[in-house]
Amino acid sequence: MQRIVAGIVTYNPEIPILRDLVGAIAGEVAAVVIVANSPMSAGDEAVLREAADDTPIHIDDPGDNIGLGSAYERIMARVDSGDADFHDVGHVILFDQDSSPPAGMVSALVARMDMLRRMGEHPALIGPTPVSATPGHKAPSVYGHSSGRSVADSRAVWFAISSGSVIDVAAFRDVGAFRSDFFIDAIDIEWCFRAWSAGYSCWTANDILMPHRLGGGHVTVPLIGWKLPVQSPPRLGTYARNQAALLRAPHVPRHWKVRVCLYLAAQTVAYWLADHGRTARPTSLVKGFAAGLAGRLGPPKGSARAAPTPVTAAKGRHPSPTRAAHEQ
Q1: In the CATH hierarchy, which fold is given to the domain comprising 3-214+298-326?
Q2: How confident is the model over 64-77, as pLDDT tens digits?
Q3: Strands (E), 63-122
Q4: What is the DSSP letter of 216?
């Protein structure tokens, strides 16, 4: 029977939440890999190793903040590393530090993916249904696929958030790498659209819920009542940049491109209202959108560690088929 490993990407994590995450999943996986995009103390590492109990845990410090896409690649590269802890791995489940999976979630998702295969589907990825971890956080949105397919208490979705999602390793090798040049935001969206275009499908399990913390809470927009995640202007700029970059991708459906344009315009106005006329966040959205249209991607300004050490990153072996089209 093929095994599953877990990969977690961290950046200045709250160690108690991260400890609970490791403890919740360690008993269901063959190994845990943590890519630490910020330095982790020996004491914090010891706490996490204790939480993992007998499950091997590999803490990988790339020496700088390399973002999510490259961190995911380092995790996926472990599967082909030849290390005994990663022998015969057929699935990888990804997490970021903001998720709190319930006990049994990993095994339940793998079983659901196997059930989908038996019913004739070709799943590349299945995730839980994300819910708000606290009343002050907005739950990530889930968008059902236009096919409307619902199988085995799961529904086909255009994409699922990467945190909590089980990825089929064989499908990953076929679909290709996560976009390292996106750095953060929309990496999961782009990859799932690419999976659909390659003949695979993406799913969320209706009955498997996972609490997740999106941003730093939410604000309610005056007059219209929208709830928006609290994000810094630079983070919103990266979000808008990567959404705009999706407009250049041939595998992204036209309806999503139309939605991106309309929704980003509405968000810009909504943040202006929520910030009572202050322009920092709306301006970042506009500038980010322009950068994405121009193909100016890569690590955002200020993302590097204050005093980075030399990077010896695991080289990704599954280059994205669309990456060249986005670089100018």
Answers
A1: Spore Coat Polysaccharide Biosynthesis Protein SpsA; Chain A (3.90.550)
A2: 999 999 999 999 99
A3: 89-96
A4: T
Q: Coil, helix or strand for 191?
A: helix
- What is each CA distance from 21 to 14, 74, 99, 100, 108, in whole angstroms? 11, 20, 7, 6, 16
Number of helical H runs and strand E runs in the chain: 10, 12
How far is residue 135's CA from residue 126's CA, in Å, rounded to a whole number?
Answer: 26
Domain positions in the chain are 3-214+298-326, 215-297
- Which residue in this structure is represented by tokens 């072996």? 317
pLDDT for the residue numbered 1 = 65
CB 127 within 8 A of CB 136: no
Q: Position of tokens 């204050």?
A: 306
Give the integer Cα–Cα distance in Å for 221 and 118.
Answer: 45
Rounded to whole angstroms, the Cα distance separating 67 from 310 reads: 16
Q: Residue 306's pLDDT band (boundaries 50, 70, 90)? A: low
Which residue spans within the chain are E strands per DSSP? 3-10, 32-36, 57-60, 89-96, 123-132, 143-144, 150-151, 154-159, 166-168, 201-212, 218-220, 227-229
Residue 35's nearest CA partner among 65, 17, 16, 10 is 10
Cα separation, 6 vs 35, in Å, equals 11
